[in-house]
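ingest -> fold -> write
write: protein_1
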Amino acid sequence: MGSAASPEQAAPKAGLIPPRKPAVVRFRWAILAGALAAGVGIGGAIALLRHSSPAITSGTTPPVETWAAGTRRAPAFVLHDETGKVLSLAALHGRPVIVTFIDPLCRDFCPREASVISAAAKAVAPRSPAIVAISVDPWGDTKQNFRADAAHWRLAPQWRWGIGSAAELSPVWRGYGVGVLVTKKRIAGITVREITHTGAAYLIDASGYERALFLYPFKTSDLVDALRALPT
């Protein structure tokens, strides 16, 4: 979760969880509905959802879903990275890819997840995967923020941000079943956005097929095991 101050822009049309992962959808909507029924209000419900996210994988062994080789092609995307270069999933075929969804302004769960992913990638060197972090906060996508994240989050060298406008990013979020909720406030005449989103990371094999889905929190060892299980 993160917030960014910027001139007024249209927020992306988004819900908490699009209906791509039925079991996860039911769990998270149950949390949200229960909070609202108890009179917590939407702000409290979102906070509860955030604080309850570790329970999603409680009692299970990550990843939360796996797929056999060649059965579930990863949704394609074409964006730009933080340097302005074109970034597409197709161009990364031939090596494993971790696709995750991160807020560059986040100061709680996102930095921890980013550190776990980077540590896993380093642990499997020289077979390290490509890492693509699709931004869930286009208003916070600045060179200054990306530099700060690289320094403080201990990002792996192959980490690349997938960025674009809200209109360009929204189809990617939906394609991967990632919910993004933007809450806007006006403070001293400035629009401040708070981002709540699904903490998902997909492991995609060298042929471009999804092989595993992780929902944060997960451990470095969980991701390392999944990476090592991929065929060479």
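write: protein_2
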Amino acid sequence: MLHFIQTAWLLARLQLRSLLLSRRMLLCVLLAIAPVVIAWFAGAHEDATETVPILGLFMVLQVVAPLISLTLGSSVVTEEIESRTITYIFTRATDRAAFFLGRLAASSAVSACLLALSAGGVVWASTTTRSGSANMKRDWSQGRPPVMVEIVRDLPDGLANGLVAAAALAAIMYTLISAGLGVFFKRAMILALAYTFAIEGFMANIPGSTQKMSVQFYLRGLLTSAYDKSSSLLTEIPGLAETQLYSVPESIARLGAAYVLLLVIGALGIRRREYLMTS
């Protein structure tokens, strides 16, 4: 067991260094910054209670989190296969499961940090008080001509923490999905993108119990934890209307159970699979 932990720790450090010095890291940083920039400009015209949930749900969790996680997750196994270095590693006295878990841990840590910072940046950009007239917006509901009202910068208690937690969990889950597919398939990145944006995107947004088969369903439970069920937020955001979401502890527990199952499948799979390099 001690040798297993030492091997996993060594490979995690090597993977962390490799990721931080890679071009894909630059791409992931740019992806993480994108929601923050949009939130900054949107926050100049909209209340934070509108900007943060919309950007958090539809951009951070559904677009940026999968893209960053799948990009970093593909480096766990697929990168070694494509560069033909996996045979060098597996012909040595290296535990394959330790190889998988160590590299996965490093990739998951990087993706979780990037997504947590991105989500926190969206909250910061939306709630930061601007100078002068930048804190005012036109309110068309008060009659004509429209009157200028102050932009609301405060968020419900728990919304910011819920978004950051949901983003970090999304990173961890999608990184494992990408890495796990890399154990069994050569075109893991393509399959991961197809699953995330086609299959899961469909399941997460159709009415009924099918939503519970998607990661996004449980992330929404964390995002909306700050709101009472009677809040208009749940009826204004498409995909959340008339959806019975789980509580935060239950959402985390179910995601945790799914994570452990996928992790065991990936670790056992990499121990048993033979990797043949074709010319």
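write: annotation protein_2
The mean pLDDT is 80.
Residues 96-127 form the longest helix (32 residues).
pipeline exit 0
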